[in-house]
Design brief:
Structural class: alpha+beta
Largest sheet: 4 strands, mixed
Number of strands: 4
Strand order of the largest sheet: 2-1-3-4
Strand content: 5-15%
Distance between the termini: 16 Å
Number of helices: 5
Order of helices and strands: HHHEEHHEE
Oligomer: single chain
Helix content: 55-70%
C-alpha cells in the first residue's frame, strides 16, 4: 500500500496541472459556488466532494456530477502514472483541502466536518 501511496504522491504535479481545469469548471458553476459558500458541500480526504448535513435532490445531483468528473480524471491520471485510483484521489483530496479558504467546509481525518479558519486545515497524515 505504501508504494501505491508513494505513486499517488509522485503524481501530485499532474493532478495540479491536469485536474485543475475540471475543478475550475466546477467552481464556475453558480450552483456549486453557492453550495460551497453556504457550507452545504465540502472537500473530503478521498478526493471527492461531500454533502454537509441533509442533502436535497439538487445538491445530490450537483455533487454526483462533480464526483463523476473527478473520478474520470483521477482514473486517467492514475493509469498514466502507474498509481492506484485511491492513491491518486487521496493526493487530490489533500490538495483540495489545502486549497479551501476561510469559511469553507472540509472533512477532517476523523470524519467530522470542519469549517476552515485562517489556520491550516486538519489533513490526513498521509498528505504530502
Amino acid at each position: 500500500m505504501r508504494s501505491s501511496i508513494r505513486s499517488g504522491l509522485v503524481a501530485l504535479a499532474a493532478i495540479t496541472i491536469v485536474a485543475a481545469p475540471a475543478f475550475a469548471q466546477a467552481q464556475r458553476d453558480p450552483a456549486y459556488a453557492a453550495a460551497r459558500a453556504q457550507g452545504k458541500v465540502g472537500e473530503q480526504p478521498d478526493g471527492y466532494l461531500g454533502i454537509v448535513g441533509a442533502a436535497d435532490p439538487a445538491i445530490q445531483r450537483l455533487v454526483d456530477d462533480i464526483n463523476i468528473k473527478r473520478r474520470a480524471v483521477y482514473a486517467e491520471k492514475a493509469k498514466e502514472n502507474n498509481a492506484t485510483l485511491e492513491a491518486y484521489a487521496l493526493t487530490a483530496g489533500c490538495q483540495a483541502i489545502a486549497r479551501t479558504t476561510s469559511g469553507e467546509k472540509y472533512r477532517a481525518p476523523d470524519s467530522s466536518w470542519q469549517t476552515r479558519t485562517d489556520a491550516p486545515p486538519i489533513r490526513d497524515a498521509r498528505c504530502p
